[in-house]
Write a structure and sequence with these properties.
heterodimer, A: alpha+beta, 3 helices, B: alpha/beta, Rossmann fold, globular
Chain lengths: 86, 146
C-alpha cells in the first residue's frame, strides 16, 4: 500500500488518480489520518457505512429498557454483588 | 476522532427512563453517535451492568442488550502488567500524600482509559478519582460537561 502525506496531496491532488488504496499520514504528528479508496470500492464502503449505522441504531435500543431504579448506583451494585458471596 | 470512556453510572442513566439524569444521558449518547465518537468501557463495567440487567430483564434481553453495547463500544481489559503498574502508581501517590482516598476500581478505569489514549471519561460521580486524575492524561467529565 502506498503512503502519502497531507502536504503531498495539497501540492498535487492528482496523486490520488494513480492509486486505488492510499494511507494518508500526517508526517509532522506521525499519525495516520485515514485512507483514500478509489470509487470502485463504493459497494464495500456502502456496506461498511451500513454496518456502522446499524451498530449506532442498535446501541440506541438500550435507551429506557428498564424503569424504577432511581436509587441504584454503581456503589450499591458493587455492594449487592459482593453480598452474594457472604 | 474524539474518544470517550463510559462509566457504570452512565449506563444506569441510559437504561432507566425514570432516573433524573436519563434525558440528559440520552441526549449525550445521541450526540456522541452523531459525532462518530469512539466509545470505550471496561470488562468490569460490563460485568456490573450485566448483573443489574439480569436482575431486571430475562436472560435473552440481557444478552441482547450487552450485545448491542459491545458491537459499538470497545471493551478494555486490564492484564497482569496493568495491575502491577497501577499498584506502583497508587503506592507512589500514597507516598506523596498518605491522606489520599483511593478507589481502586475507579483508578483502574482511569488507568485503562489513559493506557488506550482515550481523551475523556464520562461519569456522574463528582468524586471520581479526585486528585489521582491529575496524574493521567484523561479528562474526567460529567454529563453537563460534555
Amino acid at each position: 500500500m502506498q503512503i502519502i502525506s497531507v502536504s503531498q496531496i495539497q501540492r498535487n491532488l492528482h496523486q490520488l488518480d494513480h492509486f486505488d488504496i492510499i494511507e494518508i499520514v500526517d508526517k509532522k504528528r506521525n499519525q495516520i489520518k485515514g485512507y483514500f479508496l478509489d470509487s470502485t470500492y463504493k459497494p464495500l464502503i456502502d456496506e461498511l457505512v451500513h454496518k456502522k449505522e446499524q451498530k449506532d441504531s442498535n446501541l440506541l435500543k438500550i435507551v429506557g429498557i428498564v424503569s424504577g431504579n432511581q436509587e441504584v448506583s454503581r456503589d450499591s451494585l458493587r455492594d449487592e454483588r459482593l453480598a452474594k458471596y457472604e | 476522532m474524539s474518544s470517550l470512556f463510559l462509566d457504570t453510572n452512565f449506563f444506569l442513566d441510559i437504561f432507566d427512563a425514570s432516573r433524573d439524569r436519563h434525558p440528559k444521558a440520552k441526549e449525550v449518547l445521541e450526540h456522541f453517535l452523531h459525532n462518530n465518537t469512539a466509545l470505550y468501557t471496561s470488562s468490569d463495567i460490563i460485568a456490573t451492568i450485566s448483573y443489574f440487567l439480569q436482575k431486571r430483564l430475562d436472560i435473552q434481553s440481557c444478552v441482547t442488550t450487552i450485545d448491542y453495547i459491545v458491537q459499538r463500544v470497545t471493551v478494555l481489559t486490564a492484564n497482569n502488567q496493568d495491575f502491577i503498574e497501577l499498584n506502583k502508581n497508587i503506592l507512589e501517590l500514597l507516598k506523596r500524600d498518605a491522606t489520599l482516598t483511593i478507589d481502586y476500581e475507579d483508578c483502574m478505569q482511569l488507568f485503562l482509559a489513559h493506557k488506550y489514549g482515550v481523551e475523556r471519561l464520562l461519569t456522574s460521580d463528582n468524586r471520581f478519582c479526585q486528585r489521582v486524575v491529575e496524574e493521567y492524561s484523561v479528562e474526567v467529565v460529567g454529563l453537563d460537561g460534555v
